[in-house]
Amino acid sequence: MEMTGNIVILTGAGCSAESGIDTFRDGGGLWEQHRVEDVATPEAYERDPALVQRFYDMRRAAIQTKAPNAAHHALARLEREWDGGTVTLVTQNVDDLHDRAGSKNLIHMHGEHLSAWCTACDTRMGWTATLIEGPPCPSCGAAALRPDIVWFGEMPYRMEEIHDALRDCDIFVSIGTSGAVYPAAGFVRLAREMGAHCLELNLERSQGSAWFHETRLGPAGDIVPAWVEELVGPD
Ligand code: OAD
């Protein structure tokens, strides 16, 4: 594989699985326990805001008890030590484990659990507590705070920046994502069209596996640090 150039990394729930955070589509995953239409759409929130707030309140509390794993730490190290170009980390994950591991050039395309969005004044703010009781927005006072999470039917964040990075990348790596949800699932095709080497690191082949030049299977906590060592040497 090319050992220089710009790297774009896309992560999904599998990257946080070994930190004890449920994935969505594996056996027993979140979407087996809850219906997407009940908790992860704007319509669900309109219909039953308390149900949706409770779901996200529980997950916001839960992630604060978890810690980054070896995969998160290895990706932060790659960003610090790679001198062949830029490292851009795009995550579909709404936990803060990449942030806590030290990744800086990081795009949370599906939003963040530890952020609240005021639908009255359009302010976003760090938020670690619950929202179900309808606390006033610190900016405008309205009781209009919702989870700052991109729900199905809503536009993911920072797509222009992501596309720019993909167009300019030499190495594209997808880690711990099933390739079931667009637009993220389509990133590999764009990167490949632009001539990037495309590598998949996952427990099992993803839905878009055929688009990758190379697939390595195993738990992220093992195979991500091993790949990073190939690029920047042993820790
Ligand atoms: P999924 O649950 O769809 O897929 C997780 C992937 O991680 C699967 O391919 C697993 O095989 C793999 N996996 C599980 N454990 C792993 C491990 N220890 N090491 C490596 N891989 C492992 O999760 P995502 O692809 O992230 O969106 O889901 C994409 C989006 O769908 C999420 O961001 C979320 C969800 O609905 C929104 O909420 C908007």
Characterization of the model:
The protein starts with 6 loop residues before the first strand and ends with a helix. Helices cover 32% and strands 19% of the residues. The chain contains 9 helices and 9 strands. Strand 2, helix 6 and strand 3 form a beta-alpha-beta unit. With 235 residues, it is α/β, with parallel strands linked by helices. It binds 2'-O-acetyl adenosine-5-diphosphoribose. The site of 2'-O-acetyl adenosine-5-diphosphoribose has 25 residues, from loops.
Q: Work out the number of β strands.
A: 9
- Fraction of residues in β-strands: 15-25%
Low-confidence stretches: none
Q: What hetero molecules are bound to the protein chains? A: 2'-O-acetyl adenosine-5-diphosphoribose
List keywords for this structure.
235 residues; alpha/beta; six-stranded parallel beta sheet; three-stranded antiparallel beta sheet; 32% helix; binds 2'-O-acetyl adenosine-5-diphosphoribose
SSE order and pairing:
Layout: E1 7-11, H1 30-33, H2 36-39, H3 42-47, H4 49-63, H5 70-81, E2 87-91, H6 97-101, E3 106-108, E4 111-118, E5 124-126, E6 145-149, H7 159-167, E7 171-175, H8 187-193, E8 197-202, E9 214-217, H9 220-232
Parallel strand pairs: 1-2, 1-7, 2-3, 7-8, 8-9
Antiparallel strand pairs: 4-5, 4-6
The chain binds 2'-O-acetyl adenosine-5-diphosphoribose.
Q: Nutshell version of this structure?
A:
With 235 residues, this protein is of the alpha/beta class.
